[in-house]
Amino acid sequence: MTDFNPPIISPLSEAIEKIIKGYHSDPFKVLGCHPDGKNVLVRAYLPHATKAWIRSEFKQAMIHSSEIGLFEWHGSARELSLPYQILWEDENGTIYCEYDPYCFPPQLSDYDVHLFGEGKHWHTYRILGSHPTTINGINGVLFAVWAPDAERVSIVGNFNRWDGRRHPMRLRGTTGIWELFIPGLKHGILYKYEIRSRHYGTIHLKSDPYAQRFELRPNTASIVEAKSNYSWQDTTWMNQRKQYDWLHQPISIYEVHLGSWRRDENGSFLNYKQLAQQLVEYVLDMGFTHIQLLPITEHPLDASWGYQTIGYFAPTSRFGTPDEFRYFVDYCHLHSIGILIDWVPGHFPKDAHGLARFDGTALYEHEDPRLGEHRDWGTLIFNYGRHEVRSFLLSSAFYWLEEFHIDGLRVDAVASMLYLDYSRREGDWIPNKYGGRENLEAIDFLREMNTVLHEQHPGALIIAEESTSWPMVSRPTYLGGLGFSIKWNMGWMNDTLVYMSRDPIHRGYHHNDLTFGLLYAFHENFILPLSHDEVVHGKKSLLYRMPGDEWQRFANLRLLYTMMFTYPGKKLLFMGSEFGQGEEWSESRSLDWYTLAYPFHQGIQLAVKDLNQLYRTQLPLHRYDFDGEGFQWIDCHDSTQSILSYLRLNNEDFVVIVLNFTPQPRLNYRLGVPKAGIYSELFNSDSIYYGGSNMGNNPNIPTEDISWMGRPYSISITVPPLAGIILQFRS
């Protein structure tokens, strides 16, 4: 211990007063080690300390304390080796030994900071957020956050009594980025940012926008996550994906909400590993090619289903850790199942700990609610014109594709991004600079996002949930499109479900609901969605949207699925619908698996399984899902009998589809066909195996030299009631 007696601390300077009162933007100017003539001065602010010492390589030197928690040490630079440790004792007599955070230089590179500010940083999550880091051999955690209008930002957590005076951060010039390396911290600690507004002096306690892990709700702290050392086993899958010809391959998606697909015997969530094993086994048996997850980004409210996201870089902790989610994805890939996730760049919630008014101002959102708020949803709209927000969203998209090997993003609510007047009354929106209703900044963002994601991750699917007639959503940006891979066909979904909900006696008057979609079916790369949105909010389950008695409801549902799996476009079916769930879906409970004890539900499940098998193995049913070359009407005008008939083709190969939307069987129904020979049934939704009446056709159906429906040959068939049949040309 040195005998050096430091002078008494001078009266509070303005800078020291700012440190103590918590509004200094650069604590490094006051705290840490500073030249003092021929000597050095070390200053530390330790509001919970009663005593403190410098611990150096050669000796310990007492730091003079003051009543305000400020400690100083003066001495020769030779007596102090950097980095140095501070020993301090609290009011309970506990002694702590810590490296001083304020003796470490800035860590973020000027290039990264510049790229972030330009809106061009695709991997901002690698520099912002919290990252276990080693500097000069000292382990700790580097924190960085964007809060340009903050007067002071501090890191608070369970390591410093959640006291914002302890670890104020450094502001990097005019970039709005604050950073601080805190030595001695490890992964697993809880933290938030305490932000003092520059303009209002208010204090905001915020979760980390770039946190890669969160506490389980209702708790809201961020968690320092270690860099993953997960050992991926899906190299073959990832290499094959780069060459994936998704335009011509079957894509049949099982849409899943992980919290309610299945629960354990106590009604609790399954974890990611349990879900991987049980869900993959089921999906493989059912024949789906992909699983699409409702948002698994961290969210505070179960009832939002994940669509009001807080953690854009964090898998929800409801089901386990980030590495356990990696296991889930890896397990799917090892069993040749693709994984898509819902991603929500259109809006975010107003929760006090989230992005809303992050630094006391409208930072991620617009200040004007006519631009910045979805009143219908109670959420805020991203400011797509702000470069740092674009870096945030682009990095989030890259994060899921790169860090978790996700095979694609389904971008939610694209229409709400495209239109400034989306769901707004006259006068409640602001036109763009040309006086139009298009959100030019959002359009630019979507085009940039799709361009760079497709360039950097070939084979990954970027899917638009877009409900309007916006042109060229799934066409390349260099042709003037938005650049998405695929677009949800909301028109087909709406028209078809409205038609199917009608009593069959009235369907003949609405035949156009079924045929109109083919006028635009190949204008986009469409997917046919029977999604979660169609089985909630009083719409009833798909089964109970079907008219008639019990037998007719199940027959109608099998007919609907037969149409979907034979109609041009990729397929999506929400969980539970594949076995005819009767109740509306609720996120708060498991699916009604018990219904599979009943034959009608077994029949629906078996029909979907067989349709998936046919869709995957019959080239005509998927090869040209996006091209008119793969579809021809046989007859779209038979509204009197409510029958549709068409061909699905793959060059010279074809199958014949006939759909009867009435409970009246059609006997000796003459159907035009393109080739002479023998036809046979590949599939009949009225089969007794599916719960039908078992009406059908002989194994061999010969053609007759009778031209019909514009075709040179024809066959005479039985078309079962409320059923669809698929016929194959044999010879």
UniProtKB/TrEMBL annotation:
Name the catalysed reactions: Transfers a segment of a (1->4)-alpha-D-glucan chain to a primary hydroxy group in a similar glucan chain
A Pfam match is CBM_48
A biological process (GO) of this protein is: glycogen biosynthetic process
Q: In which pathway does it act?
A: Glycan biosynthesis; glycogen biosynthesis
Instruction: Specify the Ig-like domain's residue ranges.
Output: 7-97
Going by the record, the broad EC class of this enzyme is transferase
User: Which Gene Ontology MF annotations are present?
Assistant: 1,4-alpha-glucan branching enzyme activity; cation binding; hydrolase activity, hydrolyzing O-glycosyl compounds
- What CDD domains has UniProt attached to this entry? AmyAc_Glg_BE, E_set_GBE_prok_N
Q: Where is the active site?
A: 412 (nucleophile), 465 (proton donor)
Output the InterPro entries linked to this UniProt entry. A-amylase/branching_C, Branching_enzy, GH, GH13_cat_dom, GlgB, GlgB_N, GlgB_N_E_set_prok, Glyco_hydro_13_N
EC number of the protein: 2.4.1.18
Signal peptide residue numbers: none
Report the GO terms under cellular component. cytosol
Record's keyword terms, sorted: Carbohydrate metabolism, Glycogen biosynthesis, Glycogen metabolism, Glycosyltransferase, Transferase
Q: Which residues form a coiled coil?
A: none
Tell me which NCBIfam families the record gives.
Answer: branching_enzym, PRK05402.1, PRK12313.1
Role summary: Catalyzes the formation of the alpha-1,6-glucosidic linkages in glycogen by scission of a 1,4-alpha-linked oligosaccharide from growing alpha-1,4-glucan chains and the subsequent attachment of the oligosaccharide to the alpha-1,6 position.
Q: Which family does it belong to?
A: Belongs to the glycosyl hydrolase 13 family. GlgB subfamily.
Subunit structure of this entry? Answer: Monomer.
PANTHER family linked:
1,4-ALPHA-GLUCAN-BRANCHING ENZYME
Q: What is this protein called?
A: 1,4-alpha-glucan branching enzyme GlgB
Its lineage reads: Bacteria, Pseudomonadati, Pseudomonadota, Gammaproteobacteria, Chromatiales
